[in-house]
Design goal:
single chain; about 525 residues; alpha/beta; five-stranded parallel beta sheet; four-stranded mixed beta sheet; 16 helices; globular
């Protein structure tokens, strides 16, 4: 199947009465899921959604999110996922940039009213957004409840023929930040995403009968593509989990007989470190897929010995490559899984190149480039940025530095960009720095990643104070709190160092490797 609507229909035909999705008291079969998706598509068309229109989804891993997204695809629309950790201004930018006509949004999630955050943003709700739908629970006066939105579909409309969707049509616009400091919309198409994650599911051995606890957020390529879509492809049961916390995950594994638990290494390490681990039955666990940070060999062995995983694999990808480029295989030894991010998936090329684009000898570090069907269509309405990322020969320049061994396995060693990965989320210093410069105490700022045992890396800001600004410990704490009010938690720096000047090279660029070395020397002291 080469389109997402075709995946939904095919799953209903092949797996019918098997359980497709479990979310609290909501349990639906693949046939019932197909019917709800078609009903949503009919409601969207009755509302006025046209093929190619963009729809924002801003909420946690709930069944309503999955049905809304698949319904948008079935109606020929394009899904614009929004990070649940975003604040109002960040979300307003994404919606405005994508020209989203409709927004499905949570209005009460862990005490947060996302719609309220959007209304409070500078400029409020972007004018392109014509309607907001509350994903769950009562809707405020300026929104519509989920059930009321679905009810507007004419009787019998869900059986009407759906608009034709081709494999080249866009399915997602996923926003990812860059070194310019502003998020860019990555345009992905149905054919590439469907093909890539059928390949992914085959490599890891996902199968009918698996029960998949989707901890990775739906707004992320992992949760959406390797979660929802991979389950449709294989007949695995989706069990969305809205918030990762150790007790709830550990309790849900035996309660729902979970066999698949993907996630960043921090998830498994936190479970392994839990003092009550031995009181929980983890015997149903079979398959773990991890990435985004190094995985120590002892941790892989503990995942197998203490958590019962039969298969542990890791991989590497980026949004611009549909979220996937390389993967380890299920029979790779722990040393390979720990030290590398695997080799290229089928029908995709991966190389390590020098500054001129020439492939380097195996073992020599250089930039990782990717070419194949999985490469994005481009950045939304940004041909200049697209041309800078994808060269004339079709190679996507990732900005990541790594090495490749004789067998084609890639090890990520550094980043050309300054990105760091916090808890599995990419954080981009240029974006964080641009926000921090609005604080009156900040004259100059440089943000780097600092190693963290739990999250992999966290941000640390080096700040040159504005003239007359205070620089005490309380000022640093206040600056961190100020950041947390204005940006997603994984972006906000965890620490601040005030300094008289930042180290610069001859052209005036900050020497961030010196700042990282300074952090390391201070931690060793």
């Amino acid at each position: 199947m080469t389109t997402i609507p075709a995946l939904v229909e095919d799953a209903a035909a092949r797996f019918g009465a098997s359980e497709a999705l479990v979310d609290g008291g909501m349990r639906m079969s693949f046939s019932e899921l197909r019917d709800r998706v078609n009903e949503m598509a009919a409601a969207l068309r009755a509302w006025g959604l046209a093929p190619g229109d963009r729809v924002g989804l801003w909420g946690p891993n709930w069944w309503e999110w999955a049905v809304a997204a698949l319904g948008v695809h079935a109606a020929g629309g394009v899904v614009v996922p929004v990070n649940t950790r975003f604040k109002g201004d960040e979300t307003a930018f994404v919606l405005d940039r994508s020209r989203a006509r409709l927004l499905f949004c949570s209005t009460d999630f862990l005490g947060t009213d996302h719609l309220g955050l959007l209304r409070a943003a500078d400029g409020g709700v972007p004018p392109c957004v014509e309607q907001t739908v509350a994903l769950r629970g009562p809707a405020p006066p300026d929104a519509v409840e989920f059930s009321d939105f679905v009810a507007q579909a004419p009787a019998g409309a869900s059986a009407d023929p759906l608009p034709g969707v081709s494999d080249r049509d866009p399915c997602h616009i996923m926003f990812t930040s860059g070194t310019t400091g502003r998020p860019k919309g990555v345009v992905l198409n149905h054919g590439a995403v469907s093909r890539a994650y059928r390949n992914w599911a085959s490599v890891i051995g996902l199968r009918h009968g698996d029960r998949y606890l989707i901890v990775n957020p739906f707004f992320h390529s992992f949760g959406l593509n390797a979660g929802i879509l991979a389950c449709l492809m294989t007949g695995a049961t989706m069990i969305p989990h809205p918030v990762f916390d150790v007790p709830s995950v550990m309790a849900r594994i035996p309660a729902e007989q979970v066999s698949v638990l993907p996630g960043p290494p921090a998830i498994y390490q936190t479970i392994l470190n839990h003092p009550d681990l031995d009181t929980f039955d983890m015997s149903t666990l079979r398959l773990a897929v991890t990435g985004a940070a190094p995985v120590p060999v002892p941790m892989i062995e503990a995942m197998r010995d203490r958590l019962g995983f039969e298969v542990v694999v890791t991989g590497y990808g980026l949004t611009e490559a549909s979220g996937i480029a390389t993967m380890c295989r299920h029979d790779d030894p722990p040393e390979t899984i720990s030290a590398t991010s695997g080799r290229a998936i089928d029908d995709v090329e991966v190389r390590v190149v020098g500054s001129g684009g020439t492939e380097l000898p195996r073992g020599e570090p250089g930039e990782i480039v990717v070419r194949g069907y999985n490469v994005m269509d481009g950045y939304l309405d940004d041909p200049e940025a697209t041309a800078a990322a994808i060269d004339a020969d079709g190679w996507l320049h990732t900005g990541d530095v790594g090495t490749m061994d004789a067998a084609g396995y890639v090890a990520i060693t550094d980043r050309l960009k300054d990105m760091f990965i916090c808890g599995g989320f990419n954080a981009y210093p240029a974006e964080i720095e641009a926000t921090m410069l609005a604080h009156p105490a900040v004259g100059q700022v440089a943000v780097v990643g600092r190693p963290d045992d739990r999250l992999g890396e966290v941000g640390h800001a080096f700040v040159v104070p504005a003239p007359g600004a205070a620089t005490g410990e309380s000022t640093g704490d206040e600056l961190v709190a100020w950041c947390r009010r204005r940006m997603a938690n994984y972006k906000a720096p965890r620490g601040v160092t005030f300094t008289e000047e930042l180290p610069l090279n001859a052209s005036g660029k900050v020497l961030k490797h010196e700042l990282r070395a300074r952090l390391l020397s201070e931690s060793d002291a």
